[in-house]
Design brief:
Low-confidence stretches: 92-122
CATH architecture of the largest domain: 2-Layer Sandwich
Shape: elongated
Distance between the termini: 66 Å
Mean pLDDT: 83
CATH topology of the largest domain: Chloramphenicol Acetyltransferase
Largest sheet: 6 strands, mixed
Order of helices and strands: EEEEEEEEEHHEHHHEHHEEEEEEHEEEHH
Strand content: 15-25%
């Protein structure tokens, strides 16, 4: 019995997923539990396993297609079984639809009927094309059916349509039925209804050949679109203000150097400056006087203050920014924070992180210090009320007992939602945090 394979429904906020890789191809034997395909959401990449045993008798979509959740994308069954009942709308283009598209050409004046017998005809029968290929062809005003297919099972891909446009003359939909392979007078040199029956265009001299395109259009990934949407929403719906202050990083640098020297002997992980900052933030935010920054501002003017401190750590990945969460960081030791931060970052960068690890943060830390950034304005991740930007270490000069002395200064940039937090309490938090980091050994002993 044929069994449809659907794009999983991975959460109420996810409407579609991108099919990134097929691990089986049409005609392959599939056993229950085999990895069938890999898909990408706006947060993570996941392998989907087969829930039935049989043969992969049909594949409706190809790698790179964005597919609504709960849509049939393939069928597992016995060779020869019909799959028509499982085909999603738009997966294949049938001959009647192709004929309808060519109808305008048939309605041309009688003189058109006298076109040379060698005039090319529109492809007949089933024409497989991905939804993205069809959408791009429609946007470009060309007939995708004339593209040379390179996709699985003879399917036309978006890349095929782009190649068709780049490599030669293309017909408009209306003139497709009489397209003879010649350039036309339409926009971009397309063969239009006005060119049907006209004399062949004179080939341009070699020197006049059009140069290579000056740019390439690339569709944003699902996670990139989600980031863009979240950033726009954050800036449009919150009142953001950033305060920046610096502190003497000498103590935390000396502390880290000492730990690094004895880490292996003590069985400790490699404690980084970022781990130290996460630890300090978790302890300072846990104080009642800073509860406004360890909170979510919800709809209906509700301010939800958290009893635990849940730190989101911004991680740069190949797919875009991800923010995994260290839950209850204020209850964890420096070593525990360091270990968990590294595990979360590794999972995010590999694309294997569980969606549950990417939510629940009450405050976020974004560290751009390793890139030499001296100051920046981090954008709040709603509904959080604050985010801390960590900057690079710079050499500065200060007066000590009447003498000017150089020291290592690190700047911290706090962005806060002014709807929930005023400038004074935000500044007090920043000052308290800087003092704690300058006296980190004391903070660690509490």
């Amino acid at each position: 019995m044929a069994t449809p394979v659907q794009m999983p429904n991975v959460g109420i906020s996810v409407e579609s997923c991108i099919l990134t890789e097929w691990h089986k191809k049409k005609g392959d034997t599939v056993n229950e539990g085999d990895v069938l395909f890999t898909y990408e959401t706006d947060k993570t990449t996941t392998d989907e396993k087969a829930t039935a045993t049989g043969t992969l008798i049909e594949v409706f979509f190809e790698e790179g297609d964005e597919i609504p959740v709960m849509t049939n994308i393939a069928v597992i069954g016995n060779p020869g079984e019909s799959t028509a009942e499982f085909a999603p709308a738009g997966a294949e283009e049938e001959a009647p639809a192709a004929a309808a598209e060519a109808a305008p050409a048939a309605a041309a004046p009688a003189a058109v009927a006298a076109a040379p017998a060698a005039v090319a005809q529109a492809p007949e029968g089933f024409v497989k094309a991905s939804p993205r290929a069809k959408a791009f062809a429609k946007k470009s005003g060309v007939d995708y059916r004339y593209a040379t297919p390179t996709g699985a099972e003879g399917r036309i891909t978006e890349a095929d349509v782009r190649a068709m446009i780049a490599n030669g003359p293309t017909p408009t939909y209306a003139a497709a039925g009489a397209f003879d392979g010649a350039a036309g007078t339409g926009i971009g040199g397309k063969f239009s209804v006005n060119d049907i029956g006209a004399a062949p265009a004179v080939e341009a001299p070699a020197a006049a050949v059009e140069a290579a395109p000056a740019y390439t259009d690339e569709k944003m990934s699902g996670i990139r679109r989600a980031i863009a949407k979240n950033m726009m929403n954050s800036l449009a719906t919150t009142a953001q203000l950033t305060n920046t202050s610096s502190f003497d990083a000498g103590e935390i640098m000396a502390f880290r150097k000492k730990l690094k020297a004895g880490a292996e002997a003590l069985g400790l992980p490699n404690i980084t400056l970022n781990d130290i900052i996460i630890y300090a933030v978790s302890r300072v935010l846990a104080k009642p006087e800073h509860s406004l920054l360890n909170a979510h501002l919800l709809e209906g003017d509700i301010l939800r203050k958290f009893n635990g401190v849940h730190i989101g750590i911004a991680v740069d990945t190949e797919r875009g920014l991800m923010v995994p969460t260290i839950m209850n960081a204020d209850k964890k030791s420096l070593a525990e924070i360091s270990k968990e931060a590294k595990e979360l970052a590794k999972a995010a960068q590999s694309g294997s992180i569980a969606p549950d690890k990417l939510k629940g943060a009450s405050f976020t830390i974004s560290n751009l210090g390793s890139f030499g950034i001296e100051s920046f304005t981090p954008v709040i991740n709603p509904p959080q009320t604050g985010i801390l930007g960590v900057n690079t270490i710079m050499t500065r000069v200060k007066e000590v007992n009447g003498e000017l002395k150089a020291y290592n200064a690190m700047a911290l940039s706090l962005t806060y939602d002014h709807r929930a937090v005023d400038g004074a309490p935000a500044s007090k938090f920043l000052k308290d945090l800087c003092t704690s980091l300058e006296n980190f050994s004391i903070l660690l002993s509490k």
